[in-house]
Amino acid sequence: MNNKKIIWISSYPKSGNTWMRYLLANYFYNLSKKFDPQIIKNIEKFQIDYNLKKNLFQKEDLGKYPYNISKYWIKSQEKIKIENGNTVFFKNHNALVSINNNEFTNESLSLAAIYIVRDPRDVVVSYAKYRNLSYDQTIENLISKNLFYVRSKDDPYNIEILGSWKFHYNSWKNGLPSLPRIIVKYEDLLNDCYFYFLNVISFLSKVLNFSINKEQISNSVEYSSFEKLKNYERNNNYFENTGNNKFFRKGVSRDWVNELTKEQIKKIENEFSNEMDFLGYN
């Protein structure tokens, strides 16, 4: 019996994860064929199981030991109830990491992964503005030699383990060798969203064995446009925004050219030269 359940939509923060979720949610779940900002709720963020939080976390002091969250990753995935099929999409920003022999996921529970990568220089700008951090502090996080975590201000158990941009990217690129995966560049989606989203749907069609609907791809691209989402946020409180600044800020590439100093740019490029060369970020 095949018990594989999860298709991961993974990325470093502020790299296009939300955009990919909108594209996928519009393709698979938008029956009304119109712009629906709520459609993304069909693809939720991976969370620790509620009953595990309630029953087991009472003994955990996560203020002191946030990495103890790793003990509950696999247990939570094993408890996932799948409705209307045998797979589920989950967003996450965790590195594909193992902590104290506790894996983030494994090949028996995971069916595939979609990883969205973005030029780390632009990640610095977008993440710093979203989190009200300095560029220097954000760069130090991105090049960190150690794992570090981010925690939701609304839920102390909503903890994501990141590590450096390089570590994060390589973990999803090379981890779990048998796991089918596709890596999508944010900049490619900007340049030709239809073509590169078609690549994603083609990948998923092989994993899930379905026929591609090109009209639905066109609709998904239209309903997921950055301008539509930005206009929605301008007139509403965007429900996924946990920061103090706008979630949909610019949606561009090479914003770093006018934002970062030569020293800051050099620091990023020196640290990530191999990965940036491979991805064409030069």
Report what the structure shows.
- It is a single chain.
- With 282 residues, this protein is of the alpha/beta class.
- The chain has a single domain (6-119, 144-227), classed as P-loop containing nucleotide triphosphate hydrolases (Rossmann fold).
- 42% of the residues lie in helices and 13% in strands.
- It contains 13 helices and nine strands.
- It has helices spanning 17-29, 50-56, 73-78, 120-131, 135-142, 165-174, 186-191, 193-208, 214-223, 226-235, 256-259, 262-271, 273-279; strands spanning 6-11, 44-45, 88-92, 98-99, 102-103, 110-117, 149-151, 159-161, 181-185.
- The protein has a five-stranded parallel beta sheet with strand order 2-3-1-6-9, sandwiched between helices. A two-stranded antiparallel sheet has the order 4-5. The protein has a two-stranded antiparallel ribbon with strand order 7-8.
- β7 (149-151) and β8 (159-161) form a beta hairpin.
Describe this structure in a few short sentences.
The protein has 282 residues and is of the alpha/beta class. The chain is 42% helix and 13% strand.
Tell me, briefly, the overall form.
Answer: globular
Count of beta strands: 9
The top level CATH class name: Alpha Beta
**SS content category:** alpha/beta
Strand content: 5-15%
Q: What's the CATH architecture?
A: 3-Layer(aba) Sandwich
Order of helices and strands: EHEHHEEEEHHEEHEHHHHHHH
CATH superfamily: P-loop containing nucleotide triphosphate hydrolases
Distinct helical segment count: 13
CATH topology label: Rossmann fold
Low-confidence stretches: none
Radius of gyration: 19 Å
The overall pLDDT average reads: 88
N- and C-termini, Cα separation? 46 Å
Question: What would you call the quaternary organization?
Answer: single chain
Largest sheet: 5 strands, parallel
- Domains (count): 1
Could you give the order of strands across the largest sheet? 2-3-1-6-9
Helix amount, in percent? 40-55%
